[in-house]
Write a structure and sequence with these properties.
With 502 residues, the chain is an alpha/beta fold. The chain is built from 17 helices and 18 strands. The structure holds 3-methyl-2-oxobutanoic acid and zinc ion (ZN). The site of 3-methyl-2-oxobutanoic acid (KIV) has 9 residues, from strand 6 and strand 7.
Length: 502
């Protein structure tokens, strides 16, 4: 049984999804979850692309133990030096450098010939090797490159010191039989191929990223590059949860598995959804809301008799437990902390105190508290940012024959202010009052509300996206009262804008 390495690029290619950019704190949260998930390598960013990416790579490298931390770098000296600067204090590090190899890219984008591209690739792999032992090289647009030339480049970069050669289907053009054959051709034709791990990086433009990656495994690939929920440039990347579960479920076919702790899949998916604001479609394999929902009477009948009749994966395998009643009003701090430990959250004392206080408040409003409620509380705690605005009070008048009115009291820096506004509905009224007190110039791009658990006393979770001067930020708020949750989400996003402005 081979072990296929999982190279997670949620924080780099995933972040290239339109509107999915994450701040350093959010990236660190995702990275910690990826470590719990058991990925082998985390591509934490593209060091030269922005100060935020640089900082994220450094911080993730300093805070995480376990996975190798990687920075992307174009095949340019300044990129490789920047990647090294971000990684130099990280014990397990990798530089991932890339250069296009397809004639289309070389002719129209780079305006150089094949020989020059090969020379740059080799020189930059050599340069990266002067800094780190672990160097990965990607011939970008490999699937539209001439196979003979591709073999030549791969052989040369392995000779130059690359220990992983990654074959990207950059534009998601390939189909499984063809991609599998390409991996086989590399194994047959590149003389020194046994000195490197073959990796694959498939985009999903034709909906084939997972199928292509699996075809590559059948032909000898030893590393898959993927993202949580399959987010990424355009139609996204190979979806981590799908490819991992395909390997696990059909070990009989692949004779291969990964180091992934699959019980962390659902939590990883939810965290990435929450942080990026990109929801998963209900029918998405593995992590969609309907992935384990059986509607047909015939199926339900079979399932009641024997689960394996219609279930190929046990929901618990991906961490989807029947919602468990865990804590209530009388639970103490010790039980709360023990449950957080079981859920894999390690909070500082201050974070724990504040989360416990909020848990007690919630327990007063809500009879039963479930794991999902705890996760909502904790994720608010760990993604807390310095607050220029905080909500002190909110009063709403609304009804069928009432003009919706909101009176909101805010602390703006150190001052307490209050404002009453009318609106089309209670959320509109509250948002108008908040907007006027904070003098925001931002516009609301997205507003989503959903219930975290079942029941009329469930926590409602609101996610908003705000845009100001070309910057987009997301805010979250959770409360048993959805108007309060809406106000919290708006204030959270306004605080993020304030941090960025400062
Ligand atoms: O899709 C692609 O080709 C990439 C490379 C940088 C590996 O993301
Ligand atoms: Zn890519």
């Amino acid at each position: 049984m081979r072990t296929i390495k999982i190279f997670d690029t949620t924080l780099r290619d995933g972040e290239q999804s339109p509107g999915a950019s994450m701040n350093v704190n959010e990236k660190v949260q995702v990275a910690k979850q990826l470590a719990r998930l058991g990925v082998d390598i985390i591509e934490a960013g593209f060091a030269i692309s922005s100060p935020g990416d640089f900082e994220a790579i450094k911080t993730i490298g300093a805070e995480l133990e376990g996975p190798v931390i990687c920075s992307l770098a174009r095949a340019r000296e300044e990129d490789i030096k920047k990647a090294w600067e971000a990684l130099k204090d990280v014990p397990k590090r990798r530089i991932h450098t890339f250069h296009s190899t397809s004639d289309i890219h070389l002719k129209y984008q780079f305006r150089i010939n094949r020989e020059e591209a090969l020379k740059r690739s080799v020189n930059m792999v050599k340069l990266a090797r002067t800094f780190v032992e672990d160097v990965e090289f990607s011939p970008m647009d490999a699937t539209r490159s001439d196979t003979g030339y591709l073999c030549e480049v791969i052989e040369a970069v392995i000779d130059a010191g690359a220990s992983t050669v990654n074959i990207p289907d950059t534009v998601g053009y390939s189909i499984p039989s063809e991609f599998g054959a390409l991996i086989k051709a590399l194994r047959d034709r590149v003389k020194n191929i046994d000195k490197a791990v073959i990796s694959v990086h498939c985009h999903n433009d034709l909906g084939l990223a997972v199928a292509n990656s699996l075809a590559a495994v059948l032909n000898g690939a030893g590393q898959i590059e993927c993202t949580v929920n399959g987010i990424g440039e355009r139609a996204g990347n190979c979806s981590m949860e799908e490819v991992v579960m395909a390997l696990r479920t059909r070990r009989d076919i692949f004779n291969a598995d990964t180091n992934i702790n699959t019980e962390e899949i659902m939590r990883s998916s939810r965290l990435v959804t929450k942080i990026t604001g990109m929801s998963v479609q209900p029918n998405k394999a593995i992590v969609g809301d309907n992935a384990f929902a059986h509607e047909s009477g015939i199926h339900q009948d079979g399932l009641l008799k024997e689960k394996s009749t219609y279930e190929i994966i046990k929901p618990e395998t991906i961490g989807l437990h029947k919602t468990k009643l865990i804590l209530g009003k009388h639970s103490g701090r010790h039980a709360f902390k023990a449950r957080l430990d079981e859920l894999g959250y390690k909070l500082s004392d201050t974070e724990l105190n504040s989360a416990f206080e909020r848990f007690k408040k919630l327990a007063d409003q809500k009879k039963n508290i479930y794991d999902e409620d705890i996760e909502a509380l904790v994720s608010e705690e760990v993604t807390r940012i310095p607050e220029s605005y905080s909500i002190i009070d909110l009063n709403i008048v609304a009804g069928i024959n009432q003009k919706p009115t909101a009176t909101v009291k805010l602390r703006v820096d150190e001052e307490l202010i209050e404002k009453t506004e009318h609106g089309d509905g209670p959320v509109d009224a509250a948002y108008k009052a908040i907007a006027s007190m904070t003098n925001t110039k931002s516009s609301l791009l997205k507003f989503e509300v959903k219930s975290i658990t079942g029941g009329t006393d469930a926590l409602g979770e609101v996610m908003v996206s705000l845009e100001e001067g070309g910057r987009v930020v997301r805010g979250h708020g959770a409360d048993t009262d959805i108007i309060v949750a809406s106000a919290k989400a708006y204030i959270n996003a306004l605080n993020k804008l304030a941090v960025r402005r400062k």
